[in-house]
């Protein structure tokens, strides 16, 4: 999937509820998924709040320089990744 995203020029990033720092998760992702092209990696521990807190999504939108209607979000936990209006 990441190869397809990268080849297609689709921008990607990570928002995680891990207790690790964003830097630690970035290092692990780079080791396990060396071809990733994530623009940024955010974790809950960096911002002292957890998904689905809308603030995390708003921060990600600001980092990416886009509006909510220009992004797709894919998560692995329906509760933590609930759609925020």
What is the radius of gyration?
13 Å
Main sheet?
Answer: 2 strands, parallel
* SSE string, helices as H and strands as E: HEHEHH
Task: Work out the helicity level.
Answer: 25-40%
Strand order of the largest sheet: 1-2
Structural class based on helices, strands and sheet pairing: mainly alpha
Mean pLDDT across every amino acid position: 91
Number of strand segments:
2
The best one-word shape is: globular
What is the first-to-last residue Cα distance? 27 Å
Q: Can you tell me the residue ranges where pLDDT is under 50 for at least 5 consecutive residues?
A: none
- Number of contiguous helices: 4
Strand composition percent:
5-15%
List keywords for this structure.
85 residues; mainly alpha; 4 helices
Question: What this model shows, in words?
Answer:
Helices cover 38% and strands 7% of the residues. Strand 1 (14-16), helix 2 and strand 2 form a beta-alpha-beta unit. The longest helix is centred in the N-terminal third of the chain and has 11 residues, at 22-32. It has helices at 2-7, 22-32, 44-47, 54-64, and strands at 14-16, 41-43. Strands 1-2 form a two-stranded parallel sheet. By secondary structure, the protein is mostly helical. The termini are far apart.
List the helices and strands and how they pair.
Elements lengths: L1 H6 L6 E3 L5 H11 L8 E3 H4 L6 H11 L21
Parallel strand pairs: 1-2
Short structural summary:
The chain is mostly helical and 85 residues long.
């Amino acid at each position: 999937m990441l190869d397809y995203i990268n080849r297609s020029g689709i921008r990607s990033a990570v928002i995680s509820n891990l207790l690790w720092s964003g830097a630690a998760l970035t290092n692990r992702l780079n080791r396990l998924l060396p071809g990733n092209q994530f623009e940024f990696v955010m974790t809950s521990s960096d911002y002292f709040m957890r998904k689905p807190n809308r603030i995390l999504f708003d921060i990600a939108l600001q980092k990416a320089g886009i509006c909510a209607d220009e992004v797709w979000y894919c998560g692995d936990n329906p509760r933590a990744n609930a759609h925020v209006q």
